[in-house]
Design goal:
This protein is α+β, with helices and mostly antiparallel strands. The protein has a single domain, classed as Aminopeptidase (3-Layer(aba) Sandwich), CATH 3.40.630.30. The chain contains five helices and eight strands. It has an eight-stranded mixed beta sheet, with helices on both faces. Helix 1 packs across helix 3. The radius of gyration is 16 Å and the shape is globular.
């Protein structure tokens, strides 16, 4: 897989993965496999919870690359993948971007997720091509809800039928 740096923060590098494979594929798959533990996956889709082997990670990765722009979240200077950022551009509404994210548990509570989302929002506002950012989150995922609110997201009236999730949204353009 090849990478293209989307943006950096003071402590992070966010690289977008492309879907063709290169020499570093094995290390990326190993690093991503380390993210798949029960605590990190608790509030994520159920089919993600059964990923245990590197082959399963590779298949999951290929699916994700078809569905979204998948980004690696790395610590600067360490070349260590600590999380993932998912960017789903809406087919129905090109002004809307759906996002998802996950971080390795050992990096929770250290401000990395807030740094990641704040910088993503700033970049989107600078580009001025996305009007609304949506993030789906399970109602019981209090940490993620708190993070979204901290970054300026408001609870949306959108719902997913039969789901335990709710949506939070952030409008990136201000009316003048």
């Amino acid at each position: 897989m090849s990478r293209k740096t989307l943006f950096t923060t003071s402590r992070l590098i966010i690289d977008q993965l492309n879907d063709f494979f290169e020499d570093n594929e094995t290390q990326i798959i190993k690093d991503i496999k380390m993210l798949f533990n029960p605590e990190v996956l608790e509030f994520l889709p159920s089919d993600w919870k059964n990923i245990k082997t590197e082959d399963q990670v590779e298949n999951w990765l290929k699916r994700q690359l078809k569905e979204s722009d998948l980004c690696l979240v790395e610590l600067k200077g360490e070349k260590k993948i600590i999380g993932l950022l998912f960017l789903y551009y809406s087919k129905d509404n090109s002004d809307t971007l759906n996002i998802g994210y996950l971080l390795n548990k050992q990096y929770w509570g250290k401000g990395y997720a807030s740094e990641l989302l704040s910088c993503l929002i700033k970049k989107i506002k600078e580009q001025n091509n996305i009007e609304r950012i949506l993030a789906g989150v399970e109602r019981d995922n209090k940490q993620s809800i708190s993070l979204l609110k901290k970054c300026g997201f408001k609870e949306s009236n959108l719902t997913a039928s039969g789901s335990k999730s709710t949506y939070y949204e952030l409008y990136t353009r201000t009316e003048e």
